[in-house]
Structure formats: C-alpha cells, structure tokens
C-alpha cells in the first residue's frame, strides 16, 4: 500500500576557534557527579514543560514506550512550550523571505553542551536566553530524559539523534566536561586533526551523513574546519508515516496562493478523517493535529483564514499553548500540499539579537572545555550553522494493518457537521514529541514549489 511519509533531517555545527581524547576515568564520574556512572535521579525539575511530562512517574522510571498497536492517546492541554522555541522561530521567520525550517530542539542540545563549558557572563547569557534553571543538575536531568526518550526504538518510525564534539588533536579536553557530555547529553568527544582540513571535513561529513541517512552529505567544507579548536555537532533524522494515510488517487493539482496576486499550481493531497482540530478566533486561523504512527509524534498545521493572515499567527505564538487546549476530535476534510525543501541558516546574528552575545566575542569564557589557561582565554564561538530538510510525499510501500481502533470522542459526541481545512496559502507547521513536549522542527511554507530554500545568513 502506498502511504504518505514525512521525512525531516537536521544538523547543526558550533565552531570554536582560537587532542586526542583522554579516556574518561570512572573515578572522574564519581568526582563530578557524586555517584557512580549510572545516574538515578529523584527530585523536582524546574521547567513547567518538563514537569508536565514526568509528573505521572517517579524520576527513577523511564518514560513509557509508545504502544506499538498505535492507539492514539493524545489529550489536549495548555502545557507551555519552551519559550526559546517560539522566540527563535519568530525571529527566523522575520528575516526569512519564503520557506524556512529549523530544529529548536537540535539547537538547544548543542547550546546546552556549550553552556557546560562556559563561565561568568558567557554562561549567564546562554542560560538566560535558553531558559535554563540556575541549578545545572536540573538542566542535565531534563536533557538526559529527553534524549533517552527520543532514542527509544519503535518499528513505526525512524528517529536518529546524535551529538558529537570534535576537538583538535593538539587540545586536551577537560575530563569533567567530557564526563558530563557523555553521561547526560550522550555526546562523544573525538580527537581530529584540524591542520588537515580535507581529512577533517571528510570525517565530520561521514558521521553527519550516517545519522541523517545521507540527506546531509556535506555539512562542512575545508574552510569551515580550518583554524578551529572544536566543533560541536548535533544531527537529527525523523521519518514517520501518517496515522491516517492519504489516498494517492485523491492527489490533484490546484492553485496555491503564494500571495493574493500570485498563484502557483502544486499537488494537493486530500483525506477526510477524524483529527484533533480547532477554529481559533484569537489567531483567526485553523489549527490541525496530524499524528504519526507510533503514538509519539505529531505535526501541527496552523493555517490563517485570510490569505495574508500568517503574520498575526507569528506575532501570537507565545499564546499558542492556550489555543492547544481547545483542540477537539472532529471529522475534518483536509486538503494540503505536498512539499519538499532544504534550508540552511547561519544563526549567529539571530542569537545575538536574542541576547547571546559574549560567546561570539573575544571576552568569551569557555574554560571548562579544554585544559590550559592561555588556550581557553582565546576560545569563542565563530559560527553556528543549521542545515535542515523536509519532505512530505508518497514514497514506497509501508506494511501495516488495515484494522483501526476506534476512539470515543473525549469531548462527547461528534457534531453532525464536518469541518474543512484547505491549506492553500502560507502556513506554519511544527512537529512535536508529545511525550516530552519538545519541538523537533518548526517551519513555514510560503511556496510549496520551492525545493531549495538556499543559504540564509540570519
């Protein structure tokens, strides 16, 4: 059976400019954390979003795996998103002309690792903008649980998440930093010869390509790795099938309104099925949840009622969590475009505008990364780059059961009237891990006919 499959991939790099990695001594883990190499935390976590996820289980238990038989357990709630996610999305949207795609979670993971090496005002700026608790252990517990949840295997989807730090062979990383990166962020530290840029870029690109199933074969070039001390990498790949498949015989060409005066013919898919949906008066828009098989991830689409109404949605994103509480299960006739595009962005300017400034300056303080007083005084972030891609189309054959498990409407009986969502104008979308409430990807489609979003200096 032909199915609709959603593929996303992402990679980020943080370059620090101005060794062979030492083995992590088990005693170092004990010294750093005050316990053995296996951490079994019990205690409260500061961020509300995270507490929402784990409140039903003690911290010494792992998050429950999604049910493989795919019963949809979604329940609408007004749980807050991480403020940084929408702040970042709004800023990128403001300086991007057409389609864009970013991974808030991927960037947060890379910056969280960087924060572990920072001190002073550099650390304060990073922590403040990212919304991190002052207690570093709470931050480590949060990300460790998120990563563990994402790394759990499920036959219904593919999700690869990897983090790696490459440090020049001539640099000796601090064992404390290496231990924290490995224990909480599941991040490897590898020595590399940055004095041989062709070989260094080859090694880095091979690792990223493996994580992203070949979708990002060339994250860095020789110039990117020349003269750097370390590169912090994060790569994320997601491939999932819609829980409700679009029939391929319903796909037809129709106009998409890029602007009120410009229409372009694109292929639209159509399905009539039960989805969680709401009409938002505050946003003057429709909000639609489209789950993936595996009972863990979902795409949310926000389409304005007006052809020019997307800016109103973007301006109100900080209140989106309140609208999510109004989602109800309805029979919805959905018409949406197939789309595919890549997007590359340099994020230094955006992060500076958000308040992360000193990390890029000569006064940056990253003494926790490497040994040697003179070396760490010269370390600063020189570049932060994301490469992302998304594809929504019909591919291959997916084996699955034709049996559906009916779900009683949590809000009572269905209305007699069906609802309709026609996504034929610029719209916002995001894909969420509904267990941890983290946003894997956020993006905007202004023109589905564009394949390459290009290279954006944001």
TrEMBL record:
Localization (cell): Secreted
Cross-referenced Gene3D superfamilies: Alpha-1-antitrypsin, domain 1 (2.30.39.10), Antithrombin, subunit I, domain 2 (3.30.497.10)
SMART domains tied to this protein: SERPIN (SM00093)
Organism the protein comes from: Bombyx mandarina
Taxonomic superkingdom: Eukaryota
Keywords: Glycoprotein, Protease inhibitor, Secreted, Serine protease inhibitor, Signal
Database matches in InterPro entries: Serpin_CS, Serpin_dom, Serpin_fam, Serpin_sf, Serpin_sf_1, Serpin_sf_2
Matching Pfam families: Serpin
Transmembrane segments: none
Name this protein carries in UniProt: Serpin 3
Family of the protein in this entry: Belongs to the serpin family.
Predominant localisation class: secreted
């Amino acid at each position: 059976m032909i199915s609709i499959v959603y593929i996303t991939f992402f990679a980020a790099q943080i370059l620090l400019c101005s060794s062979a990695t030492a083995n992590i001594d088990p005693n170092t883990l004990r010294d750093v954390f005050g316990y053995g190499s296996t951490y079994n935390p019990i205690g409260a976590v500061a961020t509300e979003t995270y507490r929402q996820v784990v409140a039903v289980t003690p911290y010494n238990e792992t998050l429950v795996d999604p049910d493989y038989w795919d019963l949809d357990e979604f329940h609408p709630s007004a749980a807050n998103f991480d403020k940084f996610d929408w702040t970042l999305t709004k800023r990128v949207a403001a300086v991007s002309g057409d389609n864009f795609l970013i991974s808030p979670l991927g960037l947060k993971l890379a910056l969280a690792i960087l924060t572990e090496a920072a001190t002073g005002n550099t650390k304060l700026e990073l922590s403040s903008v990212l919304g991190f608790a002052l207690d570093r252990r709470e931050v480590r517990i949060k990300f460790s649980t998120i990563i563990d949840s994402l790394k759990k295997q499920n036959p219904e989807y593919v999700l690869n998440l990897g983090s790696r730090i490459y440090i020049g062979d001539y640099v000796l990383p601090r064992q404390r930093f290496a231990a924290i990166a490995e224990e909480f962020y599941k991040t490897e530290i590898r020595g590399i010869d940055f004095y041989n840029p062709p070989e260094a870029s080859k090694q880095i690109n091979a690792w990223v390509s493996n994580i992203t199933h070949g979708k990002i074969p060339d994250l860095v070039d020789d110039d990117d790795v020349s003269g750097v001390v370390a590169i912090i990498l994060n790569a994320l790949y997601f491939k999932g099938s819609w829980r409700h498949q679009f029939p391929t015989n319903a796909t037809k060409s129709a106009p998409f309104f890029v602007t009120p005066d410009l229409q372009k013919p694109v292929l639209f898919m159509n399905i009539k099925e039960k989805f969680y949906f709401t009409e938002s008066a505050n946003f003057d828009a429709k909000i639609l949840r489209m789950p993936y098989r595996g009972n863990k991830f979902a795409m949310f689409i926000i389409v304005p009622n007006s052809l020019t109404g997307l800016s109103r949605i973007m301006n109100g994103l900080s209140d989106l969590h309140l609208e999510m509480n109004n989602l109800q299960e309805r029979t919805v006739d959905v018409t949406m475009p197939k789309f595919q595009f890549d997007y590359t962005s340099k994020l230094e300017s955006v992060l500076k505008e958000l308040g992360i400034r000193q990390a890029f300056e000569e006064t940056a303080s990253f003494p926790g990364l490497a040994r040697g007083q003179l070396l760490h005084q010269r370390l600063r972030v020189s570049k932060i780059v994301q490469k992302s891609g998304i594809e929504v189309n019909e591919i291959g054959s997916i084996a699955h059961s034709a049996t559906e498990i009916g779900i009683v409407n949590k809000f009572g009986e269905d209305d007699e009237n069906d609802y309709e969502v026609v996504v034929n104008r610029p719209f916002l979308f995001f894909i969420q891990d509904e267990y941890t409430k983290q946003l894997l990807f956020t993006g905007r489609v202004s023109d589905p006919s564009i394949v390459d979003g290009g290279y954006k200096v944001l």
